[in-house]
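WARN  no MSA supplied for this record, continuing single-sequence
INFO  ligand: glyoxylic acid
INFO  echoing inputs
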Amino acid sequence: MSEYILNLLPLHEGEREEFEAIAPDAVHVCARSSTVTPEQLAAATIIFGWPRPEVMKGAVSLKWFQTMWAGTDEYTNMLPEGILFTSSSGSNSRSVAEHMLTGLMAVCRRLPAYLNSQRSHVWQDEGTMKTILGGTVLVVGAGNVGSAFAGLCQGLGAETIGLKRTVTGPVEGFSQVCAMDELDTLLPQADVVALTLPHSPQTAGLMNAGRIARMKDDAVLISAGRGSVLDQDALVKAMQGGKLWGAALDVTDPEPLPPDSPLWDVPNLLLTPHVAGGMRLEITRRKCVEMAQENLRRYLAGEKLDNIVK
Ligand code: GLV
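INFO  complex generated
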């Protein structure tokens, strides 16, 4: 039986034909996540893209699903049993890394305060600034995003240390890679701590009050993996008490962040609404398309796919 490929990727002109050339015998249906029909979902044997997790139970013929996300937690309990599940890990690394660096530089330069002054038409010097030149950047999660961010920080003259669950050798961008259980020892040495971990039972609440307390008083915290990794209440309490230079968070728990969360009002804490990655850069979109095409070629050839989640 030929495959029914439900392609929910944001394709540009000519890209549908690229998929058709890889799988000439398949039925190719291109749609959008927002308008996909129950009939299309039920017929699909392969799905590419970003369907809403709650519709996935209707995909009764599904054999393989490749999400456009790098993180995969929302689909964990939403997929039919026994299907092959792959991610697009690596597709948005540059985008997320640039966003993390932007947040880091913004708080180092006290831009949140300067923006407030600008809004009120006030010409006010906020005093000392911070540089990462010669500093230590500790990246908790030395995966694709962590490695890309570390590379940018290295380029700006920082020493970079990456933490991984399993250390198998050097990772691009890092001067050193250490095991995750060195976290508590390394936290007091870091000028910047960047969280790039996915959500899992092991990572939830990892950056807790005790660990925030171990950070330098003038360190910067960056969070861009999943919000659940950070104990937000502990961060608010610590920063309200004068701990840390600043923080830049692109992810929170929950999302959207409720309007009455105290996080909104912490000085020198920059919040963005989970926009570091996604399809906001053309290089990310095209990489997702290429990753889907390469895995489709492998799938049809019976080869092992890249980025297998389960
Ligand atoms: C973004 O957060 C992603 O997981 O791709």
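The mean pLDDT is 97.
INFO  checksum written, moving to next record
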